[in-house]
Amino acid sequence: MTTTATAQASTGRKAPTEHLGHVIFITAAAAMGGFLFGYDSAVINGAVEAIRGKYEIGSAALAQVIAVALIGCAAGAATAGRLADRIGRIRVMQIAAVLFTVSAVGSALPFSLWDLAMWRVLGGIGIGMASVIGPAYIAEVAPPAYRGRLASFQQAAIVIGIAISQLVNWGILNLADGDQRGEIAGIEAWQWMLGVMVVPAALYGLLSFAIPESPRFLISVGRTDKAKEVLAEVEGAGTDLDARVAEIEQAMDSEHKSTFRDLMGGRSGLLPIVWIGIGLSVFQQLVGINVAFYYSSTLWQSVGVDPSGSFFYSFTTSIINILGTIIAMIFVDRVGRKPLALIGSVGMAVSLGLLAWAFSADLVGGKLPHTQGVLALIAAHAFVLFFALSWGVVVWVLLGEMFPNRIRAAALGVAASAQWIANWAITASFPSLSDWNLSATYVMYTAFAALSVPFILKWVPETKGKALEEMG
After folding, report:
1. pLDDT tens digits for range 147-195
2. What is the pTM of this model?
3. Distance spanning both ends of the chain, measured CA to CA
4. What's the CATH code, domain 1-255?
5. How far from 123 is each of 55, 104, 286, 306, CA to CA, in Å?
6. Domain locations along the chain
């Protein structure tokens, strides 16, 4: 299944606007998967310390419960494409919605630590599926003239999902009088936090019944008449439907089904461009960005911030994440990919360095000294801002553009796998590393942010303004 904008050939013609509202609804419904992606990824932030206390586990075991969802993410992402080619994009969305729903209920009502981990894996499979099927479906349904702008709905939905999860967590904590294990209607607050995801999961499932199947899939299974109906819905009745079907068929026939073997070459095993893609994916995670979304409440509590305050700062950080993403969407085509990435790398290195310095201070009465505490809060928000306006968006843009057509699908798969592995490594290691030395942990993240600067300058290509066919 093609996940890039080349899923259908772009004709460059101006699409009629009479059906644009309907197209926006379809796109927003599909992007609900991105919302759940963000929500499910970040909601665990509010439950970390409660899970530690309830099951009386150390940092290493706690980290595995948090990080185990990423194993499911990798499995879901690996299987979603082929499954969608067999049963359709809509059916995969519905499967993901069921997995999200079951995971939310199971995580809210676990019998023990092991089944909580199992529900986390199921939710991770849903995340992996949503991360693949949403962008692919939007690319295949959106009219060519609006595809780029509509494709941004997925990333916007992810960061909004992260923000809403933190807002909901904060609200539930206040209902429980600031106690993560405080009871609300006989259920502990952290369980409510994990269980509330049932609501958007059910909405995602219901919306999937209200949107059409991808014309590309319909054509692939011989349902050409139905594909024409969908094309008329999204591109207008004046569209030459026979020509559009022929265009899609030609694009499908000309696609090269890339395999891992196609990626081999050069002195280092893989082609140099593939190593660059892996490097982008790994650096994106090794700066520690997911610590801000998985562990920020724990982090702030460890330096003396009360639970309610720590949850509030997690929410404000996620708002900064949204603002940074909007900035990136505005400037990525104006400034270029490399300059934006360099700005982000320098900004992240400085912010992380300041955090490392602030966390090196001795706690006074269980809290950071005032100066270091204020600086830590400002630097943490600045770090997320610089990440969001650069690497959070730019990496995905580059990965979608920089690979030659003949290897794009396979190379994207390898790069995405590297990203999940790096994400797991950071997520699983942070609790133990922070117990050892929080400041040194942030020195390590600072070093990775600094190393990303020469990596960009020397190896990363600029893809701004280039056609996909120019990538060689």
Report:
1. 667 777 888 898 999 999 999 999 999 999 999 999 999 999 999 999 9
2. 0.83
3. 22
4. 1.20.1250.20
5. 21, 8, 23, 29
6. 1-255, 259-472
